[in-house]
Records
---
Amino acid sequence: MSAFEARIKETAALVEAALDRHLPRRSGPLGRVVDAMRHGALDGGKRLRPFLVIAAADMFDCPRERSIRAGCAVEMIHCYSLIHDDLPAMDDSDLRRGRPSVHKAFDDATAILAGDALLTQAFEILAEPATHPDAAVRCRLALELARASGREGMVGGQMIDIYAEQKNFDLASIEELQRLKTGAIIRFSAIGGGIVGGAGEPEITALRQYAEDLGLAFQIVDDLLDVFGDAVSLGKPVGQDADMDKATFVKLLGPEGARDKARSLVDRAKSHLDRFGARSDALKGAADFVFARKN
Ligand code: GRG
């Protein structure tokens, strides 16, 4: 295991423990939605988004208890999106992170409610004083996460993905779709770390530039994995894009072209962080990890 893999695993364990504390089991019918939230949020995933939050915040010597809370908030949004994306009304996927998706393990209504509850709890966590003593910082975190998640972010991207006539999409249209659907939450993760860590505006701008390139590279690799990955490593079905005749980076650029584009985006993402010197090694490592990932 590389030093970076050890580091992301170590951070993932901290996030896992914090998510577990945020989602205490309950009894009775209320307990069912909590169990479904736990099924969708615990014991799985790379925890890349909270890693970005925590690594960005570490650059500014942010106390870990604050950055882990912001990391949990973004991971809850991510997990809600996966739960809803797997529903029959969307991607209709039975498998997620190598386990039955939430609507398969429970039922559709419970999965909708579990996603809704994770979405709302993310903002509850950000709003609580333990996230940051300054209410203006908490408010900015909530504002940025709301923008990244909603109409002009992930939800908007998902809507385009479902309804646009993608067969005719050119490269610019795919980039715009993915900038919203997956990019916005990745962008929040990096700048959210800067915000909770007390970074200045020029530093937040550098983090945003890094995350914009990283988000696109992440999606290109996702497209490549959908063609060349295997379902066991991915913990979800492959070949879905081709089955739905979706326009993807691989379809438009070819596998080699897509890989070259991802590589150059990763290199450019890292170059935006040069101003931080060795303090940015973890975020630079995350960029290489995104390129090399197998799941
Ligand atoms: C339902 C509002 C709503 C939005 C759904 C993000 C999304 C929009 C759908 C997920 C579908 C998907 C597979 C998108 C590709 C990029 C992506 C988010 C992959 C999964 O993220 P990883 O690889 O997953 O970080 P883990 O399991 O490691 O957390």
---
Amino acid sequence: MVIIQGIGIAPGVVTGKARIWKGKPLGVVGSGAVQAVTTPEEEVRRFDGAVSQAVLELKDLMTILGPEDLSMDILDTHLELLQDPQLAQDVSDKIQAYNLSAQEAFLEVLQHYVLLFEAMEDPYLKARADDIKDMGNRILKYLQQAPFPTQEEASFQAGTILIAEDLSPTDVIKLDTKVIAGIVTQKGNSTSHAFIIARAKGIPTITGCGSELDQISDSDFMMLDGGEGKVFLYPTKDTLDLYAGNGQATQAKVIQLTPTVAVSNNGKQIPVMANASGLEDLDRIWAYGAEGIGLLRTEWLFMSKDRFPNEEEQFELYSNLALKSKGKPLTIRTLDIGGDKPLPYFPLPPETNPFLGYRGIRISMDYPGLFQTQVKAILRAAVFGQFRILLPMIATMEELRWARKQVSIAITSLQSSGHAFESSVPVGIMIETPGAALIADLLAREADFFSLGTNDLIQYTLAADRMNEKVRQLYDPFHPGIWRLIKSIIDQAHAAGLKVSMCGEMAAHPLVTIPLLGLGLDAFSLNPTDIPLIKNNIQKTPPGLAEKVLANLLKMDHAKAVQSYLKEITT
Ligand code: PEP
Ligand code: MG
């Protein structure tokens, strides 16, 4: 038996057979597996087919956005580029002359165009290189038809443990939990979205195993302990027996401890809600005792599609959610793409610092049509449930005002549409940028609630990229600065009469429940599997303890001291 120690990301003990996946996520010009060449005629047909699909997708997007959208001019240019007969001719010539695959030929032609435009003096023409890359990505997506998981997953056997260098959120969102028993990767970080999704789906996951994974081959029998981060290759019978006993005991204990009613501390009701990954796992979420959905990342819903869902489709999605939720509160976050969350059909320009770049509300402001579609669908579905709208990546007052104005525009437009809708849906904001934290008092005047997005708030406050393993030790929820900042946000919100919940992964950390109660946090939202644990922590905190612990913690000057102290008081 070989034991590989990694970092436990999602708990659970499972056995299964290894399946090595070496694919690369799609999304950048030039990436992805090159398909084998068939005949030149077939390759030309494949190229034409990919262009037609890309054109349809773009036209669909333009219909959703509507003619008033600010991005319409750009999209018109992209459509023209896609349909340029010269492009089709160049690719066809390359295929015939050099017996290349459609993808290889297209990449060569694309490269040539990009270089040509990048070398131009005129800044306007120079900037067109980005449009060409964008158009290229649209076609490449259909040409590459990424081999994973669409084709490869079909051949996975039940009980597969996926072994990969790294995984993208798009890869994980499509994994079938009936087939994939566990995930082990070389690289990754607990707040990367691929792993947040794995946790939400309840797939035991281990990361940070590095090159140790090279010793694993396809079909090797293995066991994972996702909580402890241990990978057992060819586990002995003794190890299997030991884990079988422990696993059952822990499971039984957790279920027994799950309070079915809202928990309270010092007489205050503290709802513990779920961060949902999709509609299919709602039954599982309620079984864990969730008292609502505190965060629905709609970009995840959109990731498993091949184009943006239109208003009717989104209305159906959200109203299904309402019907399955039986009156529980539902917080729908508007699209937060960018960072590590690209949509395969919405290429974003390559960026040096994507997390500090084009994401969340910033993209929405460039595509008001997309935002309108989503808001209208939510307002219509809100007739069937208790919805709240949550805005991601707010850093300025203007962004909040823009979004609220858009909600008013959506209401006016719905009034003349004849559709039933709810006009008084609360609009809240994620506090996940230090800029927003510092003007929390001002934002609190115009927002209806706050949700603390600590995954981002910590990375921005401590300048430690949440995806960068090299700075993992700096990305630390115990840092005294994080506590001061959260305290200040909650105090400012409460002074304005606003409630604050936390939906970042920090909310699920068992060591911080007590001081968060001390800060007066009003609600928690976390991955469903940890709900029983956190509810239990809240329930068993005796009156007065949380405030005392917080006061002591705030006197400490470094993260290690905070962590040791919290360990001491929780054991
Ligand atoms: C966060 O930043 O804490 C958050 C919940 O948003 P996301 O992880 O989707 O960026
Ligand atoms: Mg965030």
---
Amino acid sequence: MKLYRTSAGPVLEYLGGAYRVTEERWDVLISQLDLQDYLRAAAVDANRIPFDAGSNVLAPIGSQEIWAAGVTYYRSRDARIAESKGAGGGDFYDRVYCAPRPELFFKGTASRVAGPGEPVRIRSDARWSVPEPELTLLIDRRGKIIGYTIGNDMSSRDIEGENPLYLPQAKLYDRSCALGPCILLSEEPLPAATVIGVEIRRAGTLEFSGSTALAGLKRSPQELVDYLFRDNLFPAGVFLMTGTGIVPPDSFTLAPGDHIRISIEPIGVLENTVVQGLL
Ligand code: DO4
Ligand code: MG
């Protein structure tokens, strides 16, 4: 069962059909405590519509905050240690990889998010920028994982590497995050074999491709959620990006015009083009 947010309102994809959902207020809709039952009731012939998931699809977010976990894959631990060598930050990344408490940081709000097909940004003052393709959880106000989407945690590696205290600037700026194309509603965890893939094309030529599997995620999604909800309330629910296991080689940096395609098979594909400077 997939839920899309579109310019014409929410659309449910279910058992091969597409259905309009009468509750158009996204926050109210995804706050239904039995969301899957609520949506199943909408999947009737009277609500059936033609639907092209390739157009008019918006980021599946209302007033939810977006948080992110870091250094949850060994590949990310290695990359962070390497990029912060000159800043003496390496030890912290190894420690957080091994510690019971995960790294969790605030990543953004809807106003900073790019939806499918919208531009994502690299900072004007960054020299080394990458996408971070991440399985992203949608969690309801009770702390229950209710669905999954694809996230791109756009990051400025030179700023983050210069000093770990610059992390918020490396991570949180206008269009530093992409989400979409839909919410895959599932009460079951995704299988460990689930593959996250990325392809980056420049002027049509493949510049980088990589993949990882959820098996490489050091912590369970629920463990990350439990830490996020410690002494924190999310009345409209919250998104949590689970960290990246794909890091391009150090010689690679994104450039304006690059096309980023992230896939997670049961969810779909999230595509964005890179801009730098004002839109
Ligand atoms: O510590 C820096 C953040 C790392 C991150 O965003 C990731 O591992 O995905
Ligand atoms: Mg990340």
